[in-house]
## 1
Amino acid sequence: MSEGADSGTETVAAAVTISDSAVRRIRELEETEDASGMMLRVAVGGGGCSGFQYSFGFDDACNGDDTVFSRDGVRVVIDDVSLEFLGGSEIDYVEELVGAYFTVRNPNAASTCGCGVSFAVG
């Protein structure tokens, strides 16, 4: 398992950052869902209308192929396969009139679907 710096800007080539709003929301969920000490797991899998899709969930365990990114005391964990698609991305939390959700600002995505949950690579 690799661990990134607490600043959210890691020195590894595949650095992933965590936005201020994502930090706030993860903290809120830790408190309201009794998920203290849990990490937000972000993964990429096949599917969705654009070929790949993001998934988000809380996890209390790290696997040998995971990298942990942290900022201001919250942690995001990503497996090595997903990290190949997510390198250079920002994990964000967006609140809009139509809803609130975690999202990935991914420079590796050649296109995304309208809902922002799936993407294609070029």
Note: Helices lie at 20-32, 80-86.
## 2
Amino acid sequence: MAKQRMQPIAAFQALRRLIADPEQTHEVFTVIRALSGSALDRGFRRFTNTATGRMILREKRNLLDTLNNREALAELPAQSLARHYLNFVQTENLTADGLVEASEEIDYAENGPSFALFATRQRDMHDLWHTLTRYGRDELGEALLLAFTYAQSRNRGIGIICLAGCLELSKTYGRGVFRAAYQAYRDGKNAAWLPAQDWEYLLTQPIDEVRQALRIPEPVQYSTLRSEAIAAA
């Protein structure tokens, strides 16, 4: 697979638009694509070197279909990852298709169906990561989940967005935001590699057991900053 050509000017312009309006989610994918280099290719190779990754490719699994089947998710036990995920997306009024729409300009299939399956699967698990890490969809939570994600993916585009977000958020949260970002990065580095997990199975399991198995701790710094901000409001 060819290495994605770096496009720093396009990334900078998209980052400025994103900072001006954080709701423009598609700009996130523009920055990531412009600066990702070989990160996604490295991730795909790592994925195919795992037994779970090869099984997922062989079975041509579509994680999006599983996440969109809310009736089936709702039938699983109350303490399962599925039910916690379902509560998260319903509370936040999200659909699993939201990130698909935001990334529609990216043609993952140009590198073949297996690569496209890996790339879209990694995209579609974003809200599962929110659920497991306990980073919310507030601006601070999104920035810290990016720090966690950067540790998992080593994608420079994600790292740049995280840094820009933390610099902006430091105006509100002070230097504590950088301590929280470091914890998120460290936790992402110490966790199991999430892109190669069998999410279809893990959705059926108790969320506390999944967190323990994947080595995902409580985000103490994030919780502290959020509590301080609420108390000060």
Note: The longest helix spans residues 156-173.
